[in-house]
Amino acid sequence: MTSATRAQAPGQVFTAGPAAAGDDVIIRDATPEDMAAIQGIYAHHVLHGTATFEETPPTVQEMQARHAAIAGAGMPYLVAETRDRIAGYCYASLYRPRVAYRYTLEDSIYLAEGQAGQGLGKALLAALIARCEQGPWRQMIAVIAGHNNLASIGLHRSLGFAHAGTQPATGFKFNQWIDVVFMQRALGPGSTTPPDA
Fold first, then answer.
1. Residue 142 to residue 165: CA distance in whole angstroms
2. pLDDT (0 to 100) of residue 116
3. Is there a contact between 14 and 25 (Cβ–Cβ < 8 Å)?
4. Per-residue model confidence as pLDDT tens digits over 115-163
5. Beta strands of the chain (E only): which ranges?
6. Residues 81 and 30: beta-carbon distance below 8 Å
7. In the chain, how many H helices and how many E strands?
8. In contact, 9 and 128? CB cutoff 8 Å
9. How sure is the predictor about 20, in pLDDT bands with cuts at 50, 70 and 90?
10. CB count, 10 Å around CB of 141?
11. How far apart are CA 94 and CA 158, in angstroms?
C-alpha cells in the first residue's frame, strides 16, 4: 500500500510523494489558518475556470465558515502542503441534505495553479477516500463540470469511480453551457451490507 492510499487518522500527517518541484507533500487536516491560502486557490478557479459554478469568490471568512461546517459534521477536509505552501485541498460533504442521503458523500478537490498533472490530485483524493472509508459512509459522488474535463474524469476513474450519468447544459458560465458529469464509487463494503453492519 502506498502512502497515498494509506488510511489517515484525524490529525495524522504523512508524506504523499514528490510534488512538481521535487519536494515531499504532506497531506493533513486543514485548519482555520489554512483558509486564506485555500481561498486564494479557490478564487482562481472561480474567476478563471469552470470546475466550480460559483462566479464570485467567497471571502476568507466564508471559507472558514464552510470549513467549520464540514469539520464540525465529522467529515474530512484535507490540504496538501509543500515547503509550507498549500498546493491543493479536498474535502467531503454530504451529497444532499435529506436524511436518506446520509451515507453518501460528494468530493471536492482543487489544486493551486501550476500543480495539475504532478500526481498531487491523486494523492489528495486517495487520502480523502481512505479517510471516508473509516466513517459510516458507503458511496462517494463526483460532480464534475464539463464532459470535456478529462483531467478530473481521468483522476476519478483512476481511483475506482465509474460514470453514473450526465446532465447536459446544466450550468451557464463564461457565455457557455456546461454539462455536469456524475461519477460514483463505493466506500468500504458499499451497498453489500446494511449501513450499521
1. 11
2. 87
3. no
4. 988 899 999 999 999 999 999 999 999 999 999 999 999 999 999 999 9
5. 14-18, 24-29, 77-82, 85-94, 104-111, 139-145, 162-173, 176-186
6. no
7. 4, 8
8. no
9. very low
10. 20
11. 22
End-to-end CA distance of the chain: 26
Nearest CA among 116, 191, 186, 114 for reference residue 154: 116
Tell me the three cell numbers of residue 47: 474567476
Sheet containing 139-145: order of strands: 14-18, 24-29, 77-82, 85-94, 104-111, 139-145, 176-186, 162-173
Per-residue burial over 24-63, b if 16 or more Cβ lie within 10 Å, else e, is ebbbbbbeeebbebbbebbbebbeeeebbeeeebbebeeb
Q: Which pLDDT value is given to residue 187?
A: 98
Q: Specify whether the CB–CB gap between 70 and 105 falls below 8 A.
A: no
Label the pairing between strands 104-111 and 139-145. parallel
What is residue 136's DSSP assignment? T
Residue type, 181: V
Q: Kindly state the cell numbers that stand for 107.
A: 468530493
Q: How far apart are CA 167 and CA 100, in angstroms?
A: 22
The whole-number average pLDDT for the span 76-84 is: 92
Mutual orientation of helices 60-72 and 35-48 as an angle, nearest 10°?
A: 110
